[in-house]
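Hey everyone, long-time lurker, first post.

I ran two proteins through the pipeline my lab uses and got sequence/structure pairs for each. Pasting them in order. The first:
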Amino acid sequence: MYRITPYDPADLDAAAGGDSTFIALDSRERVAAACVAAVAGFALDSAVGEVTIDNPMAEGFFSFSVLAGSGGHGLSRLFPYGNVGFHDGARVPLATGLGLLRAMVLREGAWRRLQAENGFFVHVGDRDDIYVGGGRDQDNAVSRTRMLGLFAGRVARSPYEPALDETDAVRAADEEFWSEVGALVADRGGVLLEERPTGHAYRWHRLTEACEVAEVQERLIPRARLAVWPDLTEDVEAIRAAVVRGERLHLLVQQYPGGGFHKECVAEPGMGRADVPNPRITEGPGHRVALVPLERADRHPLLAAVLPDGDGVLRARWRTNRSRADERRTLLGSLRVGEAVTGVVATGLHDVGVYVDLDDDLGRSLGFLRVPEMSWTRFDSVDDIAPIGREVRAEIIGVDFAREQVSLSMKALQPDPWQHYADTHECGDTVSGTVTKLVPFGAFVQVEEGIEGLVHISELVDHDVEYPQEVLEGGDQVRVAILDMDRQRRRILLSLERAQPQ
């Protein structure tokens, strides 16, 4: 058994427990090509012409983020539309298997193990590590791998070998199972059938009549995991209330009129709001919705089974080992808007914001602090507030599962000087200030640190002027009268003319 990596194994071991790639973006394609060539050498030396797909996942091994990978999870170029033929136990040509390997090295989303009947196998890890074995010495393949600029060395075992899989005791979806499904449909008037053909990929079927059971059976993908849940509901308000409470992680499943389903997503508390344009949870005639528990410990379906092969034998052994992406999503689910967290600034995006490590493990670069959320007062550079390496304390203002990102705000933990100013001043008050900016329609005056108001050109003097420069210059110290304070829009209207002695 051999481990192949694009960098020195000592660096790989130093990153133990990490889940980020060390491969530079502009080198990723080159490294992927070298890895494919190296594994092809091992396979050909082992006389492998085709491989079997084992425990495929659509996403969730490397990441769940929509910003990661590529469209189609790296499968669109390898399989027909709908990824027909991509399932557990599917046998594919070696060339297709190498295409799957390339997609994994590029972290395009999907993951799976590959194995051949003669014992040859390929496992891809989450730290740019590839494990290849076959029960024989392959010194020539190792030499070629090193010529490709990769590192290859013997290891005792692969951390992804089937013997280390955690699995659930499951029943086969046999005649007895389908008879029970039919009975549930008749008794309840309808059920929701969840089909998981690969890890973290779902297809949904609503069954409302016993005759539909046989029809759905014909459309199921081989070796899929099945779960039967209570029927979808038209009680959208109850679902919205449950989403807002956010007591546990759920998948939001929505069916639109006509019977089709929207793409499922993790239910975030903000999705339960109805007082926003285009609410995420749709209501109306024919719209139905359900919440399906996501975490393994919370899942208690009415029935569960796995499709056996055509000969009736149950051969699929679905691994339930949690990936780091699973753990990261659980961490996201534990965070609540309004909570205060402490983290360390990791990297920056110039004028946009900075990424924040919320811890040294799963929380790496999980937080994002945008420039407008750093401080109530003006500052010249991000480095003045959040330089790389500085520990910061901020409030969580948003949790985005789709992007695996936590939005942070430092100023949410600071008193709002604008509101304090509005609380301690009234319209008609005369205050001192400094002219900070002249514009064609007037002048901005700073009346307190971080608080500015506008003197419209018509409020400068008691006669018409064409340009504010006729009256003021930047830096002038002035007395102005407060005309209006708009708390919602955070705007103050001032008058220079009305502050002058009569």
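...and the second, right after it:
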Amino acid sequence: MNTTGTIDRPLTRDPLKQALMTPQNTSEQPSGSATEDFITMGAITSRQNRTREMQLIPEALARAHMADRMREVDGERRALRVVAARRMQRRAERVSLRARRALAMAVMN
């Protein structure tokens, strides 16, 4: 059985022995599928297209995701502070009103 590997299940895990990703114009394989020749130099040169920026894309994506999460957490934290400040303000107003009433009762007596 001569089965070629797929992207999800490559024929070999060794990157030097993997097939080149060159487009073919034959009707038996779709464009971009792996060819049969396992040339070590070809495997190395095909990987030269992977630039440093492409290798850093997952890291940049993770950094952006973490920045979004940090902004979201900061917003939630700010909202909790506003709620706590309103709660303390209402408590202070009640205490102030209670003190005024006590002072008024003391003056009337």
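Reply from user beta_strand_b:
Welcome! Quick read of the second one: The radius of gyration is 34 Å. Residues 97 and 103 are 10 Å apart (CA to CA).
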